[in-house]
Structure formats: C-alpha cells, structure tokens
Amino acid sequence: LVRDIGRQLEQVSEEDISVAERAAELCKCDQTTMMIGDTKLGELQGIIGGHYARLSGEPEEVAQAIAEHYRPTGPGDELPATVAGLLLSIADKLDNLAACYSPISWITWRRATGSVRHRPGPAIHTPCGGRRRQCWSC
Q1: For residue 80, what is the DSSP state?
Q2: CA 7 to chain centre
Q3: What is the DSSP string of 76-118?
Q4: Is the peptide bond before 72 cis (omega within 30 degrees of 0)?
Q5: Residue 23: is its pLDDT beyond 70?
Q6: C-beta of residue 40 within 8 angstroms of C-beta of residue 54
Q7: What is the C-alpha R_g of the chain?
Q8: Shortest CA distance to 71 belongs to which of 83, 56, 81, 59?
Q9: pTM for this model (two decimals)
Q10: Nearest CA among 36, 137, 33, 24 for reference residue 89
Q11: For residues 88 and 20, is the Cβ–Cβ distance under 8 A?
C-alpha cells in the first residue's frame, strides 16, 4: 500500500518509498513488547518502535518513519515531518479504515480526519488535476 500511495504522489522519491516500505514491515513490532502491549503506555506506540528500530541497527530514516506513523492521532495533533512517515501514516490509517466493517465509531472518525489532514504536511503535490471529487487528498 505504501508503494502504491507513493507512486500516486508526485515528488516522492524511490528512496522515500523504500524507507516507508521497510518501516511498514516493522512499525507494529512494538505492540508485541511488554513496554506497549495492553499497558497504560499505549500512547508511546510508534515512539517506542522508533527507539527499538534504532537499537536494532535500522537506518535513522526508517526509525523516524516508524515513530511518526501514528501522527496525527486527531485533528489537532502534529503531522509527520518526513515523507516516509507521511506515506506510512496514510497507509496505516487507510488500512485501519478498510478493516472497519462496523458502523463508524469515534475512533474511525478520528482516523479519517487524520488521513484527510495529511494534505498540508510535507510538500508533496497530489496529481488530482480537475478530478477533485475523485481524489480524497484535495
């Protein structure tokens, strides 16, 4: 999904797509640790994953994308600062939305507003042209 999103966006390099793909492979690993799991430290998801990635020898770009992929968690939250983090965050939120088969809940709504809010993030031009109604990121 990360690759497909990256190819649809202009000004996204193959390197950013590769970084986002590697981060996508690792970004949920922190949920299996005792640090995150079902504890009250759930708000550290992604942040802890970024630290684990660094300690495991992953490149800084991969660790940063992992740390950013939960952003934004809601309408007022900070956006991902890197292109790889942006790609991974969009893919993760779209994956979560696609997995929802029940009526829209508050969590689903927050994720949807986070996906739409990515638009003013890092400078990436979306090739929508005159098809505004067909492009969710405009």
Answers
A1: P
A2: 16
A3: TSPPPSSHHHHHHHHHHHHHHHHH--SSP-HHHHHHHHHHHHT
A4: yes
A5: yes
A6: no
A7: 15
A8: 81
A9: 0.69
A10: 24
A11: yes
pLDDT digits (tens, 9 = 90+) for 65-113: 999 998 888 888 889 999 999 999 999 988 887 766 655 555 666 666 6
Q: What angle do CA 53, 59, 62 make, to 5 degrees?
A: 65
pLDDT, tens digit, 9 for 90 and up, residues 35-52: 666 666 667 778 888 999
Q: Which two tokens stand for residue 44?
A: 């550290």
- Show the tokens assigned to 33: 């640790």
CA distances from 130 to 4, 77, 88, 124, 138 (A): 21, 30, 26, 17, 10
Rounded to whole angstroms, the Cα distance separating 114 from 109 reads: 9
Largest CA distance in the chain: 49
* Residue 24 · residue 6 · CB < 8 Å: no
Contacts 24+ apart (CB under 8 A), 99-105: none
